[in-house]
C-alpha cells in the first residue's frame, strides 16, 4: 500500500513495507487514491516526491497474484486487468497539477519503471538499484501506453533500443548518460535529500498547477493521446500575468 503526507508545500507519496511493491489491484487503487488526494489539496507551489521503502521501488505487476488464478487463461486475464487498471494511474501522474519527482532508491522493473518515468524528474541511487524493462525476457509485448511513455521520455533511439529490445538492466550512471534519469546519488538517503531539495526549489516558484499540468500534457502528445488526456488552453489573470512579467 502507499501513504500520502504533506509537509509544507510538498506531498510525500510513500510505497510502504519491505516487499517488492508489486502493482496489483489493491496497490494501484491505493496509489490512485493518494494521487486524487494530492490533486484535491494542491495549491500554487505544491510538489510531489514519491519514495519507496525497502529494496525495491517497484518490481512491476504482481505476477504471483495473477498466477494464483490457476489456469493460464484466467492468469492472463488477471495480468491484462492489471495493465488496464494501471493505465489511468499513469494518466493521473501525467495530469497532476504540480511538479513530480521520483526518488528511486531500489530496483524499478517493468510497470515499476513506468511508474518512476511517469514523474517529471527521476533521481536514482547509484548502487543497489537498476531500471529494467523485463517484458522481452518474460515473453510479453509492451502495453501501448508503456511504449508511448518510453518514446516520450527516452529521447535517444539507441537508449530506447537498449531498454526495449535488449532488456538491459540499467544502473544509475548509465541511466543518467542515457537521459532516463536526472541524477545519481551515493545512497538512498542522498537521493531522497536531493529529491526534497529539488521539490523545495520548484515549490518556491508558486506556479499555477493547472497551467503546469497543461504544459506537461502538451509536451507529450502521443502519450496523452494513448492515455485519453485532452489538452486545453489556459490564460492566467491578466493583472497577475502583467505583474509577473514586470517582475522578471
Report on this structure.
This protein is of the alpha/beta class. It has twelve helices and ten strands. The strands form two sheets. It has a six-stranded mixed sheet with strand order 1-2-3-5-7-10, sandwiched between helices. The protein is globular, with a radius of gyration of 18 Å. The N and C termini lie far apart (44 Å).
Number of helices: 12
Average of the residue pLDDT scores: 94
Instruction: Give helix % range.
Output: 40-55%
SS elements, strand count: 10
Radius of gyration: 18 Å
Order of helices and strands: EEHEEHHEEHEEHHHEHEHHHH
Sheet with most strands: 6 strands, mixed
Main sheet: strand order: 1-2-3-5-7-10
Beta-strand content: 15-25%
Low-pLDDT regions: none
Shape: globular
The helix-and-strand class reads alpha/beta
How far apart, in Å, are the first and last alpha carbons? 44 Å
List keywords for this structure.
single chain; alpha/beta; 6-stranded mixed sheet; 4-stranded mixed sheet
What can be said about this structure in brief?
With 248 residues, the chain is of the alpha/beta class. The protein is built from twelve helices and ten strands. The strands form two sheets. Strands 1-2-3-5-7-10 form a six-stranded mixed β-sheet, sandwiched between helices. A four-stranded mixed β-sheet has the order 4-6-8-9.
